[in-house]
Design a protein that fits this description.
This protein folds into three domains: about 180 residues; about 190 residues, no CATH class; about 55 residues. It has 14 helices and eight strands. The strands form two sheets. It has a six-stranded mixed beta sheet with strand order 2-3-4-1-5-8, with helices on both faces. Strands 6-7 form a two-stranded antiparallel sheet. A hairpin with a 4-residue loop joins strand 6 and strand 7. Helix 10 crosses helix 11. The chain is elongated.
Length: about 475
């Protein structure tokens, strides 16, 4: 390829830099880069460990392998690591929980066949919220028994809500927002009626004990996880009730003819189905043994174990592993400084590799959350130097060939693999041509420095970018937004 005559040419060394970016968890320095080097090099390859020449960070040594056999001939390879775990301060448990709530609000947006994971997470979170609600209401009930105001204290939150809604209705009326005012007045009337019957009729307390905890839990879930979370809790509540009532009925419905259960069901329980005479769960209903009620002790036991299980998962996995993802993905003001510093050091590392003059090729290998950090690093560095890169017209032939490589679904696997190999060869030749480009050009008015772009490969391992529509989409839509902090 011919280059402009002006400027000086420099001979690029046959040396490759591999930049490894680790993933989530309490990663140790050089742990990831050692694994990458061991995976790609032969067992008998000698590796030299030495500090970086810049001396910026003596903890992050460079692994060098000389004379590595490649398709381009022997090359020297330096393995570097972008280490960012120390920049992630201890993530609070509430930060992880709020991020999980956001994921539930977005809905099941994972790849086909993996949405069961979203349903499982949403069901567990909804159950955990309902469990905490039930335990707190039991605590309030025990405290109110001392004051001899059990019903009043349980219904006190509804009184506060009713007061707030009444004020909202008044403000909406003054502003002539008639729809809001009408909705607020209707809600206030329903709550006042509920309070009246709940405080003055003893029989109504039975329904309050059964349905007050799941209703309060539903309101909290609606606020925290949106309509999708409320849908999940409704499904979970129905399934738990069916299972629990069947178990309770098997224990306490003693009037069945157990010597011939099928005949007894057909004679006494199936024929009057859904009629007043059909009451197979009569004992269960009158005792108030409904899931997540104040009078059903199995639900309390399940709730306690659910909370214990959540705290165990949080200590073992959620906070130590997902905490990093929650800090990087969630657009919270408290996460901006951490995310900004990680990207700053990442771009600085990539820039130093380009400016060192030692390499004619850079390969980026990233694992897990590190692939998102590496992606931010690449696009940020490219946006910084894109205006100073060589004239694309000087590489028009190679670029045209790259654009012409087909990747149709109709291709056979062998043809598709051949096209991939051809695309890689063309992209590497393009980078090598850019690396040989003159470092200074005279455009007739002044001399300007020409930037280099030496990254030929971006290898991701277990990347969340596969599920970017879930991790990075705006809640309530299927549209993608710019990555956090962009």
């Amino acid at each position: 390829m011919d280059f402009p005559a002006s400027g000086s040419h420099s001979t690029s060394p046959k040396r490759t830099a591999v930049l490894a970016v680790h993933g989530i968890g309490s990663q140790r320095a050089l742990e990831t880069v050692r694994g990458v080097a061991a995976a790609v090099l032969k067992k008998d390859t000698h590796i030299w460990v030495h500090p970086e020449k810049s001396g910026v960070d003596v903890d992050l040594s460079v692994l060098t392998a000389n004379g590595v056999d490649t398709t381009e001939g022997p090359r020297d390879v330096d393995f570097h690591e972008l280490y960012w775990a120390h920049l992630m301060s201890e993530t609070r448990a509430v930060a992880v929980l709020l991020w999980l709530f956001e994921l539930v609000r977005k809905g099941p947006l994972l790849r086909k066949g993996m949405n069961a994971i979203w349903w499982g997470i949403a069901a567990f979170l909804a159950t955990a919220v309902a469990s905490v609600t039930l335990i707190l209401l039991h605590g309030i009930q025990r405290f109110s028994e001392v004051l001899d105001e059990v019903s009043a204290l349980l219904l006190a939150p509804l009184f506060v809500i009713c007061t707030a809604i009444t004020y909202a209705a008044l403000a909406a009326t003054i502003q002539r927002a008639w729809r809001i005012a009408a909705l607020a007045l209707l809600s206030s009337a329903l709550l006042i009626a509920f309070l009246h019957f709940g405080l003055n009729y003893g029989s109504f307390n039975h329904y309050t004990d059964m349905f007050f905890p799941p209703l309060i839990a539903a309101l909290i879930i609606l606020v925290a996880m949106g309509r999708r979370g409320l849908l999940v809790w409704s499904v979970v509540y129905v399934i738990i009730n069916i299972s629990l009532m069947v178990v309770q009925n098997a224990r306490y419905q003693v009037n069945w003819d157990r010597s011939n259960i099928i005949a007894d069901i057909l004679k006494n329980h199936w024929i009057p189905f859904f009629t007043p005479a059909w009451q197979p769960f009569e004992v269960i209903w009158h005792q108030g043994w409904i899931a997540w009620s104040m009078t059903e002790h199995w639900s309390t036991t399940i709730a306690c174990w659910t909370v214990v299980l959540y705290f165990g998962l949080n200590a073992v996995f959620l906070q130590s592993y997902l905490g990093d993802a929650a800090r990087y993905f969630r657009n919270s003001p408290g996460n901006v400084a951490v995310r900004r510093e990680i990207r700053k050091q990442a771009v600085s590392t990539l820039a130093s590799l380009h400016e060192s003059g030692q390499y004619d090729r850079i390969i980026v290998v990233a694992h897990s959350l590190g692939s998102v950090i590496a992606y931010d690093m690449l696009r940020t560095y490219f946006s910084r130097i894109c205006n100073d890169l060589p004239n694309p017209g000087d590489f028009a032939d190679t670029i045209k060939q790259l654009d012409g490589v087909p990747f149709d679904d109709s291709l056979t696997p062998d043809a598709l693999q051949a096209n991939r190999d051809r695309f890689r060869d063309l992209s590497r030749s393009l980078v090598e041509s850019i690396a040989r480009y003159p470092s200074v050009l005279d455009d007739g008015k002044r001399k300007r420095r020409v930037a280099k772009w030496l990254v030929t490969d971006f290898v991701t391992l277990g990347s969340p970018l596969t599920h970017a529509i879930c991790a990075m989409a705006t809640p309530g839509t299927n549209s993608m937004r710019i990555l956090p902090g962009a």
